[in-house]
Amino acid sequence: MSGDLTELYQQVILDHNKRPRNRGKLPTANRVAHGDNPSCGDQCSVYLRLDAGEPGHPERIGDISFDGSGCAISQASASLMTTQVKGKTAAEVEKLYEQFHHIVTTGETPEEISDLAAFAGVHTFPARIKCATLGWHAARNALKGDPTPATTEKHTD
Question: pTM of the prediction?
Fold first, then answer.
């Protein structure tokens, strides 16, 4: 990865950490899930409002927010995740998660560069993969209506 690209990615992460998007409890949420990363101490709660789709169309995330505490990677990743999944269906979120997971575990970025690629460098720090994916795991649980807290210790990533 070029130095300029690495610097750009670092700026995206720092910006989302310093000025998180969609932070705070969402009063209109109809799904909530919590996540915990015991190895780092990160905590993340995801609040989302699923909006019913038109007949024959799936529900979509009408609004989403997160709250919690933890390292810069976990907080920036949760912030960026909320911007990426708003308006998406559960299937679309799952596809985005798979792309994100691939990025953070391999460092490979898709041909179409997106803000998710900012986390490509995480793959060189395996313990930080759990930090980066925590908010995603909580969001996926919220989408499923699964009240079980998401924990990075249950996942092999």
Answer: 0.91
